[in-house]
Automatic annotation (TrEMBL), chains A, B:
Keywords: ATP-binding, Coenzyme A biosynthesis, Ligase, Nucleotide-binding. Pfam families: PPS_PS (PF02006). It comes from Halocatena marina. Its EC number is 6.3.2.36. InterPro entries: PPS/PS (IPR002855), PPS/PS_sf (IPR038138). This is 4-phosphopantoate--beta-alanine ligase. ATP binds at R19, R41, D182, L183, N184, R188, S189. Belongs to the archaeal phosphopantothenate synthetase family. It catalyses: (R)-4-phosphopantoate + beta-alanine + ATP = (R)-4'-phosphopantothenate + AMP + diphosphate + H(+). Pathway: Cofactor biosynthesis; coenzyme A biosynthesis. Coiled coil: none annotated. One of its GO terms (molecular function) is acid-amino acid ligase activity. Homodimer.
Length: 250, 250
């Protein structure tokens, strides 16, 4: 038994746990109205994908892990939905890849930023960025442009879950390597991504951590990790996910 | 200009109006957390359908109108989402087809029932059922089974928007004609429906009203309306919507 009164073997375990964590996120002021609607949109695409990590998404997750490990300054951008759904898993991925966590919200309010920072601390995070907000992403309106100068602004690799399309494009225009988790392969965020991860964040975040651990354990050389990155074909990944969604099978 | 500061000619008018009404529904205590997630799931399927009423959905809406006009005791079941999105349109459909409105919630709380009843009254409804809750749909647990004895319990035809799968099946088991508005053709609700309406409620409700008006104006005989109903092929409607979602075109 875990935080919900259902054994992990239950066929609807993941769905019930997701629902519980989202409800809890609403109570804590972490998840916004638009975040809940976005959650539903994701669930529909996940349903069409078969609520599983398709093989091409697993390949993208391995490449994302290589990017995070090779980065000079990797940052995991945290919004209300992933904070509610996978707080511990985000902290773990940040530790394994030596990345910073930065809270970055589409509908930014100081209350929600602080509620999310507190929530991440409760789940083991030491430092959480996002409260300084002392720099701006060029080309976005004021509120949505706010980032930390020593966080997303300076990062070379950013993992963005369910990002707003405008901001995903603006980050790409800054030349950053964007690892985008979004279940809609046709979204503007995925079109702007360096590595499109078309998978549920609840599965994707732990999967990237596992790949990072395996790459570290195998003592992969920089050269080997660069090869993994160079051989990655993002167009093929996008096309594969769309094909599975349209056809309903691999 | 209407309730939002955007002209109706704006390409994102429907989307912005939907967002505004949903946010307003949250503020008024009408829309629930699960309702917001369901809204998002619907948006994703609507996106794949091209955010339009596909021709087969229009045929289903005409058949739904015929069912409501021929019914002895038609009831429009109202949940938090449709109450927030199309309150006036529901009242108009109820008037045109001489149907009752009954508030019926998956996550039933007395506060939310009363907030929705008030909201419908503000939008022109005279009588709204759902507060008596003096009967039970067989086969469901207590809270979800509650209905009015002179409303859904006694109805021969029920229009249900975005119904929970268990309740859709339980209503079908009672022998009711179920007109189900749900954008997912694979949902258990649509599998249990008599008439699957695979369209956004924001388009479907006014479309059913228009069809009902046309059928009335043409002084269609009972026989003609029965023919419309008899010629309806629900399997073809379900298959057509799934094909459009999968293939992206008609």
């Amino acid at each position: 038994m875990s935080e919900i009164e259902v054994p992990e073997s239950h066929p609807r375990y993941q769905s019930l746990l997701t629902r519980h964590r989202i409800e809890d996120g609403v109570k804590k002021g972490i998840t916004s109205t638009q975040g809940l609607i976005a959650q539903g949109r994701g669930e529909a695409f996940d349903y069409l994908l078969g609520e599983r990590t398709i093989p091409s998404a697993d390949r993208a997750e391995r490449v994302a892990a290589a990017h995070l490990l090779l980065a000079e300054q990797p940052v995991l951008s945290v919004n209300g939905n992933v904070a509610a759904l996978v707080p511990e898993e985000l902290v773990e991925l940040a530790e394994v890849t030596d990345a910073d966590l930065e809270v970055n919200l589409f509908n930014r309010t100081e209350e929600r930023i602080h509620a999310i920072v507190d929530h991440l601390h409760e789940h083991g995070a030491s430092e959480v960025k996002g409260t300084a907000a002392d720099e701006r992403i060029p080309g976005l309106d004021h509120e949505r442009a706010k980032v930390d100068s020593d966080g997303i602004y300076a990062a070379d690799v950013v993992l963005v879950p369910l990002e707003d399309g405008d901001r995903a494009e603006a980050l790409a225009a800054m030349g950053k390597t964007e690892l985008v988790i979004d279940l809609n392969p046709l979204s503007r965020s995925q079109q702007a991504s360096t590595v499109p991860i078309i998978d549920n964040a609840i599965r994707a975040i732990p999967a990237i951590t596992t790949h990072a651990r395996v790459l570290q354990r195998a003592s992969s050389t920089l050269e080997e990790m660069r090869t993994i990155i160079d051989e990655f074909d993002r167009e093929a990944i996008l096309a594969d996910a769309e094909r599975v969604i349209r056809n309903g099978s691999d």
